[in-house]
Design a protein that fits this description.
Largest sheet: 7 strands, mixed
Strand content: 15-25%
Order of helices and strands: EHEHEHEEHEHHEEEHHHH
CATH class of the largest domain: Alpha Beta
Strand order of the largest sheet: 4-3-2-5-6-9-7
Bound molecules: S-adenosylmethionine
CATH topology of the largest domain: Rossmann fold
Shape: elongated
CATH superfamily of the largest domain: Vaccinia Virus protein VP39
Radius of gyration: 20 Å
Length: about 250
Amino acid sequence: MPRQRLGQHFLIKGSVLERIAAAACPTRADLVVEIGPGRGALTEKLLKRAARVIAIELDPYLAEHLRRRFAAEPRLEVVQADVLATDLAQWGRAAVAGNLPYYITSPILEKTLRLDVPRAVFLMQKEVAERVVAVPGTSAYGFLSAHTALFADARLLFAVRPAAFHPPPKVDSAAVLLEPRRHPLEIGDGEAFLRFIGQCFSHKRKTIRNNLAAIYGKETIDAWPEAGLRAEQISLDRFAEMYRRLS
Ligand code: SAM
């Protein structure tokens, strides 16, 4: 992929870098996996707070730059690879952090949410961050919010203006903290449950009746108290109740 398409907007504002590193490692961490280290601005901050950092960078020129820049730092391992093709569990339980390449924010989230991590802190497009943390009944709430909530408690930490990057992106950004759900949902096959939620959201403006009747039968769905609601009004716990009725 050409380099300009790799989402290379480098953070230049020290205070933002500090805040991301502090959120990823609130106390000294054994290990942090960094996604998309670029030229190493966040890597440097993470190395101050973690015993070891694994940095996964797709661009071979940047990976080489990092190896040279941190040649005297044995606590850093630079992995030149596509994060989406990398087994992130191979180093054991680790915090995950990154100023993400925005073009693959969703697949990175999908992957990280399924990992056993103490926490993950990501900088992403603000509009996506708002969808990640959104609650039912708000316009930002959708499949991404419910998907995230199944695995994690998500919090928007702070917004970041384009001027904090070089070159500046066209959009505002925000940092999001993901921590494992405090009260895991008892739902059996989580992936099947997510497919059900996807069906509920298949046409966001339509009611549950209109989205589900053709799949599960009109009579079944008409009997549900949620039949006339839209998915964007329904919490994850309520989706779980609906899903359990089907099995
Ligand atoms: N962390 C750096 C910073 O804040 O200055 C750079 C962040 S930049 C937004 C995203 C980085 O992710 C770039 O260095 C880009 O080359 C890298 N990248 C893009 N796609 C990637 C992929 N599939 N796997 C790993 N890194 C990727």
